Amino acid sequence: MSTEAYPLHWPEGRPRTMKFSRETARFKTSFARARDEVIHQIELLVGRWQAKQAGIVISTNISLRRDGLPLANQRTPDDPGVAVYFTYKKRQMCFACDRWKLIEDNMQAVAKTIEALRGVARWGTGDMMEAAFTGFTALPTPESQKTWWQVLGMNGRPSADALRQAWLRVRSVHHPDRGGDANTFATIKAAYEQGCMELGVSP
User: Judging by DSSP bridges, how do beta strands 57-59 and 82-88 pair with one another?
Assistant: First the structure.
């Protein structure tokens, strides 16, 4: 699976937090400090010498300079989501967060999550460790190469009305209560929510 650092490469099927539901965090961090903390926690998890082979990608809607810091004078993006990809025990992992209003806070939340899972690795049993990481495995699927409007069966970026009509159509076909597959429905629902977010409409 191809993962881009910019723009944000949100994992398919992972629910999004709607704009009006985002909260103000109390991390008191900066983009650079939060980024460094994410990398530090991954290094502690996989081992410093294996970190280069882990293929760490921190994906956001912030365009970066060569030194990894944000370009000057760019507008704060509407979508503050952060998705962190890396390889752990030969599996591609993805930690994604968009609960908070600021990118640096979502990045710090990812770092704290990885730190907590390191505690599971240190103090838990083997089955607890595997169970904890299962939900963060990023599995490549054909759907992951599609845009949200393609997932909804549309050609080109639609209007808000066309988005709503497409959602009603595919929802009636793929809803689990009507015999549809739960994973497919989750992907479609995430695509619809992403479309609503980008078009500035309520789901």
Answer: antiparallel
Query: Coil, helix or strand for 42?
Result: helix
Note whether 100 and 80 are within 8 A (CB): yes
> Mean pLDDT of all residues in the chain?
82
How distant, in Å, are the alpha carbons of 3, 63, 86, 93, 193 from that of 90?
Answer: 16, 29, 10, 9, 31
End-to-end CA distance of the chain: 28
Q: What is the spatial distance between Cα 74 and Cα 67, in angstroms, rounded to a whole number? A: 16
pLDDT band of 38, cuts 50, 70, 90: very high
- All structural domains of the chain, each given as residue ranges with its CATH number in brackets, are 19-134 (no CATH), 146-199 (1.10.287)
Global pTM reads 0.65
| Integer Cα distance of 37 and 115 in angstroms | 10
User: pLDDT tens, 155-176?
Assistant: 777 888 888 888 888 888 888 7
